[in-house]
Amino acid sequence: MADRLRSLIDDRGWGLWAAELKSSCEFIGLVGLHQIREEMPFSPGIELGWRLDKRFWRKGYAAEAASACIKYGLLDLKVDELIAYTAIQNIASIGVMKKIGMSNSGITFNHPLVDSQSILRQHCLYSISASRWHDLQGDV
Questions:
Q1: CA 111 to chain centre
Q2: Is the preceding peptide bond at 112 cis, omega within 30 degrees of 0?
Q3: Which among 52, 102, 107, 131 is placed 20 to 30 Å from 25, CA to CA?
Q4: Digit-coded pLDDT (tens) for 76-106
């Protein structure tokens, strides 16, 4: 997986990056941007994603890194919108999405790569537009 992610970064200049603690350089997970898969109902686009080791949940790391990725995506890559999605039961990730200024699109969907019998199949979609992000920066 690391080789595949590195290859995507080498090809595009961006992707899902390794996240580490500033104090110790300990690897804590992945955070970054990813091209939305074609089989997703809202493709094409750019996804903001994160996956941290459980030991590092609820410490603000996901929100801090995801916020930096939003800034990079909207300012440097000049995309108009970033999206994020998660299983509707994943209250923690939904909380991160809200904390970083993303809005619930009201769209739910069955993730095509999750088993049809899984309770994690139904997902919700959040997004942040460049204009919304700029508006939020004015409030800081």
A1: 15
A2: no
A3: 102
A4: 999 999 999 999 999 999 999 999 999 999 9
